[in-house]
Amino acid sequence: MEYTDFAKLERALNAGKIPGVMLWQGASAIDGTPVVLVANRFDGASGNDKTGAMVQTWILPDPRAAGIEVNGARPAKIMAWLKKTGARSICGDCPHAWQHNDATGEYEKGSCYVREYQAPAATLGGVHRGAYPVAGVDFPAEWIWRIGAGRNIRAGSYGDPAACPADVWRDFLAMASGRTGYTHMWKSAHAQARRNAWRMRDLLMASCDSVPEYRAAIDAGFRAFLVVPAGSIDTSARSLYSVGAHIDGAMICPASDEFEAFHGRKTECAKCGACSGAGGKGARMPSVFIPSHGATGGRVTGAECPAAARMIKRIQAGEFA
């Protein structure tokens, strides 16, 4: 599956003849275990009504190194790996990731809205089968920026982008027509992943789960994406800016149901561009907040994130990553 002609690779991607490309493979910045960065959905297909048609990117464990089983053309059997590792190599200390249950000795699903057994498992199965041409092996790594040029890209459809090198993301997003991306690693206890996140303040939103985190992220030079409790916004109120529905310096997500309830319309991530970090289309926009949503029905962990608490103290003390 070697490509020496960029036009041939691009045609194959656009036509869906190949599912996507592997942009990078190497040691996770979180724990050093082998991970991969895959981009797919170049043909415009998307099953996500909120994001719309965007190129999707997946930070996933290297299936062979992780011993993840794949049978034929079926999706990878990722659940056993998740229960054993909690997805730490790709999600780090994100408070919404899988949480360890001391009673069972296994990790259990947290409040993350991603259904790992669907698109992530299918993508991982393709990686295991060698369906994705690999940058630097099957095509020149110097083409990465060309592959992303003119496209709307979702950075981190699953997994945290900061688990991978910032320079790879910079190449891929350099000429993109639009982007959306988030990182919890800005407040992480994992130093290398945290440094990657801070290097991408212009590309990614800082994911925040409380108002103190939101304020700390803004102080650190990020634009922030704050998740507030489900049901905390009264959509029957006459104004969006009623008590409890307004966060200073932030706007409600224009792709949310709550926005539609107030304005009678909503958009999708591919058209909005607000969640593009401190640079790009969203540079002059407010930060963004949204009520908890997704596959877990707004379930929250109920505990303060220790990594976030430490990072907030560091920011307040003037110590920056």
Structure report:
The chain has 321 residues and is an alpha/beta fold. The protein has one domain (7-316). Helix content is 27%, strand content 18%. The protein contains twelve helices and eleven strands. The strands form two sheets. Strands 1-2-3-6-7-8-9-11-10 form a nine-stranded mixed β-sheet, with helices on both faces. The chain has a two-stranded antiparallel ribbon with strand order 4-5. A hairpin with a 4-residue loop joins strand 4 (99-101) and strand 5 (106-108). Helix 9 packs across helix 12 (306-316). The longest helix has 11 residues, at 119-129. The protein is globular and about 55 Å long. The N and C termini lie far apart (41 Å).
Could you write a compact summary of the structure shown?
By secondary structure, this protein is of the alpha/beta class.
Question: Can you lay out the helices and strands and say which pair or pack?
Answer:
Elements: H1 6-14, E1 20-27, E2 34-40, E3 55-61, H2 63-66, H3 79-85, H4 88-91, E4 99-101, E5 106-108, H5 119-129, H6 144-148, E6 152-158, H7 166-173, E7 178-183, H8 191-199, E8 205-208, H9 211-219, E9 224-228, E10 250-252, H10 257-263, H11 269-272, E11 287-291, H12 306-316
Helix pairs in contact: 9-12
